[in-house]
Amino acid sequence: MFGKLPTILFAASVGGGLFLTFLSGLYVVKPFILDAEEHYFGFPLAWLQADRGLWGGVSPWRYSILWQGLILDFLLYGSIGALATAYLFRVTLKKEQSIP
């Protein structure tokens, strides 16, 4: 129905997303802080921070959301999704109009 190009684009986007997600699992920033542990995560969770104290024993992990990064990701990925949806809608509409 859609042809080869959207299928190739879909496969490339899913494959690329999985590849970037895999790479981000290898990318966790752990700055050196005395008596504390802090982690910043990579690609899909770049707006997430985890920390815990090590003074007087190990405390449980505390997760924080970096709101500016979350809003920026939402706007960026939302606009990319909207553009892709509009493109596929236009291609589908054009193909349906050309069918006799």
Descriptive terms for the model:
3-stranded antiparallel sheet, alpha+beta, about 100 residues
- Strand arrangement across the biggest beta sheet: 1-2-3
Strand content: 15-25%
Summarize model confidence as the mean pLDDT.
Answer: 78
Order of helices and strands: HEEEH
Number of helical stretches of at least 4 residues: 2
Largest sheet descriptor: 3 strands, antiparallel
Question: Can you describe what's shown?
Answer:
This protein is α+β, with helices and mostly antiparallel strands and 100 residues long. The protein has one domain (4-13, 24-98). It contains two helices and three strands; from the N terminus they run αβββα. The chain has a three-stranded antiparallel beta sheet with strand order 1-2-3. Strand 1 and strand 2 form a beta hairpin. The longest helix is centred in the C-terminal third of the chain and has 32 residues, at 67-98. It is elongated.
Briefly summarize what is shown:
The protein is an alpha+beta fold and 100 residues long. The protein is built from 2 helices and 3 strands.
SSE layout and pairing:
Blueprint: H1 4-25, E1 36-40, E2 48-53, E3 62-65, H2 67-98
Antiparallel strand pairs: 1-2, 2-3
